């Protein structure tokens, strides 16, 4: 279905763009125009909010983790035996699990299995974090700067993902409307051909 519009308020080439007099504005043109407006508004509102929310959540999680690990401290442990795996170029090294040993402040020795570079020889110093009970932990508490950096990084990744989703939805929506428009043109052309054929037969 189409409607005639006054001069100066029409759409050029059936695209829904104002400014060309006398051309029809199709339903698909209006859908495309308003759909794009809605998509842009949703993106401008949702993307910043999602980025801020995820960044804030990561910052809070890092802050809580830092508080929970406030009693941890860094110690130097040593490899008990050679770490398995091949010793390869430093730019392509891999991590393996190997036992390390360290001495607590009270003089007692402790051992744990931690991640080390493959091919490291026995006796290599391995910095680890330990709790007040002497248990090895994967990492120490994040500093305030690290918490802020993690929050900003997460927010940036979230915004990039939201942008990717927006582009994908925009492209899909445009193709869908174009498909509907083309089918409408085909139906109208079939109708015109039928009318022309009928006129020729009446002659």
- Sequence of strands across the biggest β-sheet: 7-6-5-8-9
Strand content: 15-25%
Structure annotation, total helices: 2
Number of strands: 9
SSE inventory with pairings:
Elements: E1 2-3, E2 11-12, E3 17-18, E4 25-26, H1 27-68, E5 73-79, E6 95-103, E7 109-117, E8 125-130, E9 136-137, H2 144-202
Antiparallel strand pairs: 1-4, 2-3, 5-6, 5-8, 6-7, 8-9
Task: Describe the protein in words.
- By secondary structure, this protein is α+β, with helices and mostly antiparallel strands.
- 50% of the residues lie in helices and 20% in strands.
- It has two helices and nine strands; from the N terminus they run E-E-E-E-H-E-E-E-E-E-H.
- The strands form three sheets. A five-stranded antiparallel beta sheet has the order 7-6-5-8-9, with no helix packed on it. Strands 1-4 form a two-stranded antiparallel ribbon.
- A hairpin with a 4-residue loop joins strand 2 (11-12) and strand 3 (17-18).
- Helix 1 packs antiparallel against helix 2.
- Residues 1-20 have low confidence and may be disordered.
Primary descriptors:
203 residues, alpha+beta, five-stranded antiparallel sheet, two-stranded antiparallel sheet
Give a short overview.
The protein has 203 residues and is an alpha+beta fold. It has 2 helices and 9 strands; from the N terminus they run ββββαβββββα.
């Amino acid at each position: 279905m189409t409607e005639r519009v006054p001069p100066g308020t029409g759409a050029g080439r059936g695209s829904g763009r104002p400014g060309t007099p006398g051309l029809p504005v199709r339903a698909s043109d209006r859908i495309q125009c308003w759909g794009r407006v809605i998509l842009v508004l949703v993106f401008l509102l949702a993307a910043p909010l999602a980025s801020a929310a995820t960044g804030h959540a990561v910052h809070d999680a890092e802050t809580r983790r830092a508080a929970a690990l406030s009693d941890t401290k860094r110690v130097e442990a040593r490899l008990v035996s050679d770490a398995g795996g091949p010793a390869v170029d430093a730019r392509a090294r891999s991590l393996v699990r190997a036992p390390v040993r360290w001495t607590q402040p009270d003089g007692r020795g402790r051992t744990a299995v931690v991640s080390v570079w493959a091919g490291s020889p026995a006796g290599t110093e391995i910095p680890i974090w330990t709790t007040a009970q002497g248990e090895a932990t994967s990492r120490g508490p994040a500093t305030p700067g690290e918490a802020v950096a993690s929050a900003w990084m997460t927010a940036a990744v979230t915004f990039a993902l939201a942008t990717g989703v927006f582009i994908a939805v925009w492209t899909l929506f445009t193709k869908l409307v174009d498909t509907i428009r083309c089918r409408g043109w085909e139906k109208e052309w079939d109708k015109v051909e039928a009318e022309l054929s009928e006129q020729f037969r009446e002659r």
